[in-house]
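Researcher: Quick one. two chains, 636 residues in total.
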Amino acid sequence: MLIFSTFLTFAFVSLAGDPRQNLLANPRFSQDSYDRLAHTYHLDASIPVRYWYWVQDVFTHKLGRSLLTSQAIWPDLTRVMGHTVQVIGLAEIIALVLGIAVGIFSAVKQYSIFDYLFTSVSFLGFAMPTFWLALLLQILFVDIYLKWNVRIFYTSGLNSGVASNTWSLDRLQHIALPVATLAIISFALYSRYMRAAMLDVISTDYIRTARAKGLPEWLVIMRHVFRNALIPIVTITALNLGGLLGGAIVTETVFSIDGMGFYFITKLGQLDVYAVMAYLAVTAAIIILFNLIADILYGYLDPRIRYD
Amino acid sequence: MTELGGQTGHEGAVAPPSQPIDGMIVGGDELVDATVSAGLELQVRSQWSYARMRFLRHRLAMAGLVGLVIVFGAGAFAGYASPYSYDQIDLNHLYAAPTLSANHFFGTDELGRDFFSRTIYGIRTSEEVGLFVAILSSIFGVLVGAIAGYYRGWIDNALMRLTDLVLTLPAIAILLTAAALWGSGSQWRITFILAGFFWTGIARIVRGVFLSLREKEYVEAAKASGAGDLRIMFRHILPNTLGPVIVNTTLAIATAILTEAALSFLGFGIKPPTPSLGVLITDGQNNPQKWWLTVLPGMTLVFIVICVNFVGDGLRDALDPTQRRVRA
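Model:
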């Protein structure tokens, strides 16, 4: 599947444009070196051949070098991946914890004010473009800074001083807003799914049995309903990873964070085929891996499912 | 009920109402005669009119529809609805804050262009993109889904592989790549790129229905009475998919508008001077203090999307009451 999707995207990326076009604009750039460039980078070969060269590069040279700057892609990509993992990981944890908690309460107190409030919040979350939410937070905190000269959260970058990749209050202040953006969007999703899953389980027979044998209500909810309702959330979490990575493209652009999404957007703007391909291949691999983990977990959590 | 259901080909998708509604045919000719002789007006209702009644009673959906008609109407007649033209420059009023006087309801931007008018023109662009993407992708998705589900074979395989591909990458990454390479900032190219991506979802739904229905007895009966493949596909099976297709087409409008805005915001979608809501939000990005440039077009966008989602929910409840709503 990975091979198929990378080949398709590769063909699709390579067919679309010649990255040398910008060079041609330079009058001191001769047709001769133009052709030589094509030959060194195999731009004159057919798509399947180029794909083969690319696959070789991926395995022997760790995703190869950038087409435009000749920089090795791998060190860049691992650096930005670290930043993205920090942002996405935090956002995911916050969204899951809050989403599950709110989902439980909404289901237990169905049709209460609390339930309606969070139903509206999640409707808003579904309708809200990620980039707009990010911009709103940015505007808010820029305003706070300009009006009262108070820095609560930074609105761009990863560090205020020297770049370092360790956890610090400074780092947290920088990534708080992108994390909040992604967390709010995912929270809307998780709380809805958790509520639906809880309601599904509450209406089953074994819950009636549990109540009938006199268990206190909180024990029924926490031990019997909650545990079973978590199972579908595993799948949703894995499926949402793609959404989070997509959301990271947008939020990292808004907050100028040196992460995978920002890397992708920059390279895409320059039509740097190999860097774009590297991003797509790594992303696809991550998503496939997490879906696999989710499938295995699912089988473990729900013994009714058997993989033969 | 079954006769009624069979006529519109919508059996199974619409549950019979639990209580007889006045005017519904319950027991055949005698009852009709009895009601007619009793001087009661008798109305025969099709499944569609039941669906319409359910939709009209859905309060959120009606509110959404009213909101949509107002906003999309303003967009469609942008030339009449907006007080200024979208590119009219007024150098005396740069960055005017929103005010009720002078008709600058949404303020003005860095060239003094009236932002309310620009937003209305932006609605028009987003509306065109949303509607065309939804319609194009539905038509294509229904065709491919029908063929894949009915004939199976390589088309089915290709369709499933393609949807797998879509699942392995963030949608926005694929669309960004496509838009960067082929979009060139043109509204129509972006529309086609979005439609070229969105049809797979609808094709999958249609394929699922076709796969299960092609084995049904009534299809066999149609075959036995000499109906051709095309007649079976479009006359006998396709009407059963209409409910989910209509719902998904509606929701696709919202998704398409949101996606177009995100692409434009990232610089790979529609390019200025064409005002789309995404482009307008970008205008505000470099001026965090001129909050109206970001907040107001964004609120318009959110309003449109919420309205479309409400209408979609209402349609789902009306056309397909058996399906429970869980949003992906």
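DSSP finds twelve helices and no strands in chain A.
Researcher: Thanks, that's what I needed.
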